[in-house]
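Hi W., the zinc ion complex you wanted:
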Amino acid sequence: MCLRVGKHGGKIKRKIGNINGEDVFCSPIFTKELDENEQKHISTIVKAIVDTQAYIDDENTNPGYVLLLKKPDIDFYQKAVTKIVAIDVAKKFLNDQQALFEGYKNGRGLIGATAAISWEPRDRTFELISYRSKQHWGTKRQIDLKSVQQMDTNCPSTFDNYDARNHHNRIVPNSPCPILYGIRGNDAEELVIASTQVNSEPVESWLLFETNQGTDNHLQKKQIAHIHPFESVITEGSVVVNPFTIQGGHVLFTIKDTTGTISCAAYEPTKEFRKIVRELYIGDNIVVYGGVREHPLTINLEKFEVKHLTTNMVKTENPVCPICKKHMKSKGTKKGYKCIKCGETSVYPTIQEKPRTIIKGFYEVPVCARRHLSKPLKRMNQETQSDTASFNENQMTRHIESS
Ligand code: ZN
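Structure:
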């Protein structure tokens, strides 16, 4: 998460939240950047907050904070979102930038913090996060599911709210954290409307974040031979091994391009998505999107696009005798067919084109199995360009996901 701070913001301000009854605004312009003394002063405030508020005991919590006077270019973000960045590399980068920083435990929080600062959104979304009052932390969240479904229908610019088929309420986190819910969408204003439609326990505070969720920022276009473990890729190929199901309900198939072959998988948690994957056939040309697993090297499908469907010819029946109009009998495997009445023979059975049940286009995993960074199909071709946005995103609170 990243916050940009400055002084003497202009008169134009925009409400982006409310914390304990007090409205929070951001300003699109600062007339004064901060100096090193102010950077030091802010770092003591940040340190005090992290020291008292972070759940250090949680094994998945590795906080870190970074204060930079100048925004670095986007390279660090690109690396962090597409690859694994070593902590030493991040620390060296921060020292080179004269950053004030501290990493706790394994220090990996520094990587996310630095990536958030260096992000320049080419596509971005928003998330409205609402928070619970302290007395409710750790207890079951009181949220009316019907109102979430209704909000999902009423607010078309939001996404990944609810998975009707798998009964999964995606706006609610699983952890016992202070977050009540997070609604993601393309339009910050509609998120505010959306949150008023969710019936829940009292919301103590809420804040709008600019995010890279749902942008596919983690994906890189690659040819198969250049794909490495732990990357997330977009690659095009043709199916060379038909989909088959293994124990546990996972569906696997193989694609190839001019450089090599690779396995693709739709794992059990992707539910009904596997049914579509099973419809693929040798010769189909597809573009796959997903993260790469190491052993065995496999693309874990997030979505795919069918570009070309092969014609699938199948034997439908034994050939019909042209004289007697009766079906011939097989003489054995690959030995052809013979009419038992008149002795007429034929080499080939009747072949027909098997109708395909899949059509060209995009297919994605259901909401319940979606990764935070995966771009939902409803966002395809409607990327939000930050330069056309109604307000400068740079001053907004950022919440970014890394790979
Ligand atoms: Zn015959």
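Residues 321, 323-324, 339, 341-342, 344 surround zinc ion (CB under 6 Å).

W.
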